[in-house]
Amino acid sequence: MKKLHATLLTMVLLLLMVPVYTFGMHIMEGFLPFKWAVIWGIVFIPFFMLGLKDLKKIFAQNPHHKVLIALITAFVFVLSALKMPSATGSSSHPTGVGLGAILFGPKVMAVVGTIVLLFQALLLAHGGLTTLGANAFAMAVVGPFVSYGIFRFMKKRNMNKGLSVFMAATLGNIATYVITSVQLALAFPDPVGGIMTSLIKFLSVFLLTQIPIAAAEGFLTNIVYDLILKNNPEGVDGYEVKGL
């Protein structure tokens, strides 16, 4: 049965990896003004450093978690590479970061998300190097912290685990796009209404496509989470309780 689950999961991931070409990206290369590209890079760096520290601690406690981290990285890469056109200079897509945040905490995802975004920028022209800090802050910092917070909040209240995973992944995805909208609004305020008018415009465009995508990500994250727990009933859940 475990082999069947692994085979089915592999088939799903391979299907998801079929290239989807659109005109969108995370926030594409060169789209942000230089000032904002630098600011978001500086804001993001401390989270990346904390993530490296957490990752070393996880591997020291249990080297076998390297395989699971690799799986989570692949999961994020595949999901966040799927995209559809949205606001100019960006796109709507799943993020996949909720799974790793639930299992290992949000700081680790700052490293995982950065690796994913870097490879996507270099190999798929999805995102960019100048916008790496902004994209990483939205997808690899804010999204995971929201997912982690929602999951912990619901778990402490003994709410259904499946619902907790679904809500964590879904709201983490939406939070990413709220921050992306803020980033774009700050960089490109409306000539008449300013930042708030621009923010409302970006949010209205993003959320139209992002809400159903986020819900779909929530369902898929639930499936993969269950598969992981069935194959690692003690290691993962034990780390989840003791190590964070």
Q: Would you kindly provide a written description of the structure presented here, covering whatever features stand out?
A:
With 244 residues, the protein is mostly helical. It has helices at residues 2-16, 34-61, 65-81, 97-104, 106-124, 132-156, 161-187, 194-231, 235-242, and strands spanning 84-85, 91-92. It has a two-stranded antiparallel ribbon with strand order 1-2. A hairpin with a 5-residue loop joins strand 1 (84-85) and strand 2 (91-92). The longest helix is centred in the C-terminal third of the chain and has 38 residues, at 194-231. Mean pLDDT is 82; it is low at 14-25 and 237-244.
- Major β-sheet strand ordering: 1-2
Largest sheet: 2 strands, antiparallel
Question: What percent strand?
Answer: under 5%
Termini separation: 31 Å
Low-pLDDT segments, ≥5 res: 14-25, 237-244
Helical segment tally?
9
Q: What is the structural class?
A: mainly alpha
Overall mean confidence score, pLDDT: 82
| Rg | 17 Å
Count the beta strands. Answer: 2
Backbone shape: globular
Name the helix and strand elements from N-terminus to C-terminus, one letter apiece: HHHEEHHHHHH
**Helix proportion:** over 70%
